[in-house]
Amino acid sequence: MNTSTIIIIILAVFVLFVIFLYNSLIRLRNQVKNSWAQIDVQLKRRNDLIPNLVEAVKGYMKHEKGVLENVTKARTQFLKATSIEGKAKASNMLSETLKSLFAVSENYPNLKANENFMQLQEELSGTENKIAYSRQHYNDMVMFFNTKIEKFPNNIFANMLSFKQEQMFEATEAEKKNVKVQF
Questions:
Q1: What's the predicted TM-score (pTM) here?
Q2: How far apart are CA 42 and CA 143, in angstroms?
Q3: Burial 37-54, CB ≥16 within 10 A → b, else e
């Protein structure tokens, strides 16, 4: 083999490496975006259920107007959020207000027995589980993506190709605190 053939082979391997790396980074970035979209779907589902829950509870909880107002405010903040960080923060706030709402509902036996309320509570509980799973999946995809662009020699080419790290979905300080259960 002559020198020019070796150089051509090395360049071909290099070009194939860059193409493979670029395509794998695109695939991972799209998986991250898809994972966030799945969170967004579940958050929207929860948002759509909240007005029905509030209406079912209103008649029973005239004294707990502040809790209902907080749920409505948190929902409005979520609807106004545009960035991933903003939606994550609003979602966390909404989760906290829903916990308060369900805790207050314990004081109303008739409400707890109400079929509509029970169905909505089950729907929201299932949605919260789906949101938790979607967050976990999103963070897994972000970890894969970020790891790929941080590894050597990928980091050199990822930087040249303008790939940036994605942000993890993190729990708020309020969510990290122990839940207080009283009987």
A1: 0.61
A2: 21
A3: ebbbebbeebbebbeebb
Q: Which residue has the higher pLDDT, 28 or 83?
A: 28
CATH number of the domain enclosing 46: 1.20.1440.20
Residue type, 20: F
Phi-psi map region of 132: left, alpha, beta (phi>0 left; psi -120 to 50 alpha): alpha
List, as one string, the DSSP characters of 137-156.
HHHHHHHHHHHHHHSTTHHH
Distance CA 139, CA 170 (A): 9
Domain count, the chain: 1
Closest CA relative to residue 142, chosen from 171, 166, 161: 166
Chain segment 103-156, per-residue pLDDT in tens:
766 666 665 556 666 777 787 778 888 888 888 888 899 999 999 999 999 899
Return the structure tokens found at 134.
Answer: 């979607």
Residue 66 lies in a domain: yes
> Is residue 181 a part of any domain in this protein?
no
Q: What is the residue range of 8's domain?
A: 3-176
Q: Tokens for 28?
A: 């991972």
* Residue 182 in domain: no
If you average pLDDT over every residue of the chain, what do you get? 79
The number of residues making up the chain comes to 183
The pLDDT of residue 118: 72
